[in-house]
Design brief:
With 152 residues, the chain is an alpha/beta fold. 47% of the residues lie in helices and 14% in strands. It has seven helices and five strands, in the order βαβαβαβαβααα. A five-stranded parallel sheet has the order 2-1-3-5-4, sandwiched between helices. Helix 4 links the parallel strand 4 and strand 5. The longest helix is centred in the N-terminal third of the chain and has 13 residues.
Length: 152
């Protein structure tokens, strides 16, 4: 599977406005963006959109994902149901940077009712501009894919 540099974004209705702002920011910066919806603030269920995001990452259509709902919690749980996803709920640029450096997160979740647009922009910037540190963290991240075997 070849992973693309595209960034997929998905939200529910509560995260729609923040998603739209971030899509516009990323496109203005020349980034390849996949908007997985929704297309309005009409009520939708976050599990569907978290699953769409997970599918885009698993299929290699997107290298990174940004999931947004009111708290960021529900959509992060939905996205993380896909084994290809390592989605971290972040509320600061520092958390976003550490999610990449230490956990090789390929997705972040944002709570539109928790953080404002400037904090969200900082989270996205840190997430997209931080490399995985590897080293002692690589073995730990590798274990994430083996948890069923480890727990047995």
């Amino acid at each position: 599977m070849t992973v693309t540099a595209a960034i997929a974004l998905a939200s529910d209705h509560a995260g729609f406005a923040l998603k739209e702002a971030l899509v516009a920011d990323l496109r203005a910066a020349g980034r390849d963006v996949i908007d997985l919806g929704p297309d309005s603030e009409a009520s939708v269920d976050y599990p569907e959109y978290g699953a769409r995001l997970g599918d885009a990452i698993a299929a290699g259509r997107a290298g990174f994902g940004i999931a947004i709902c009111g708290s960021g919690i529900g959509i992060s749980i939905a996205a993380n149901r896909n084994p290809a996803v390592r989605c971290a709920l972040v509320t600061s640029g520092l958390m976003a940077r550490l999610a990449r450096q230490h956990n090789d997160a390929n997705c972040i979740a944002l709570g539109s009712r928790i953080i404002g647009i400037e904090v969200a922009r900082d989270c996205v910037h840190e997430f997209l501009n931080t490399e995985f540190a590897g080293g002692r963290h690589a073995g730990r991240v590798a274990k994430l894919g083996q948890l069923k075997d480890i727990a047995a």
